[in-house]
Design brief:
Largest sheet: 11 strands, mixed
Structural class: mainly beta
Number of domains: 2
Number of helices: 2
Order of helices and strands: EEEEEEEEEEEHH
Length: 207
């Protein structure tokens, strides 16, 4: 998969993808022998390699809207990819070294899905052989500009309710655990959600 557009973000509904970070000119490949998915690109004079194990992939769905020149491969993740980097140098073959999330506000770490924008003519491998949850559809996928949701500047996304909610630690811990394991998209955690888990409004045994 050469010269594709890679977007990190969260799928907030069946046909809406919230984009947190975007990179063009990406080369990607499925390594079925090593059970890895790789992406390679250059950004600000640094070469990057992203590595995602198949065990870190929840499901894959291909959106092929009729009459469009592009299609979208949405990959749900259980966690962030491994990041490797090396400086671009003249003729020197530097080794890959482990890197960290270099995006503003650690946006990769706040993403639990990838959206690959591919030309409709690109032939994909037989993904259903390795991914039992692989699906294809002809639906439209709307790409929306998203915003970071984490209140922490660290590598692990953490959310806290706004003023008006005083949730106990064990409930906040479970909410953040669901986000960090890719079970609930961060943008879905809003005031309506907090009201559903507020012991002042809902009995604890019903939460």
């Amino acid at each position: 998969m050469d010269n594709i557009v890679l977007r990190f973000g969260n799928q907030v509904s069946r046909d809406n993808f919230s984009v947190l970070w975007k990179q063009e000119g990406v080369f990607g490949k499925f390594d079925f022998k090593m059970r890895r998915l790789y992406f390679f690109f250059s950004h600000l004079s640094v070469d990057y390699k992203f590595e995602i194990s198949y065990e870190n992939i929840g499901k894959i769905e291909l959106y092929r809207p009729r009459g469009q020149a592009t299609k979208f491969l949405v990959i749900q993740l259980f966690g962030a990819p491994r990041i490797y980097e090396k400086e671009v140098s003249n003729g020197h073959h530097n080794e890959w070294v482990r890197g960290v999330d270099f995006t503003p506000s650690s946006r990769i770490g706040q993403s639990y899905a990838l959206c690959l924008e591919l030309p409709n003519t690109l032939r994909l491998p037989e993904l259903h052989h390795d991914f039992v949850h692989y699906k294809e559809n002809e639906d439209q996928l709307e790409l929306m500009e998203g915003s970071p949701f984490s209140c922490s500047s660290g590598l692990v996304p953490i959310v806290n309710p706004l003023t008006g909610f005083n949730l106990p630690y064990n409930i906040l811990f479970k909410i953040n655990s669901l986000i960090q394991h890719g079970c609930v998209p961060g943008p879905a955690i809003d005031d309506d959600f907090y009201q559903l888990v507020d012991p002042k409004r809902i009995k604890v045994e019903h939460i």
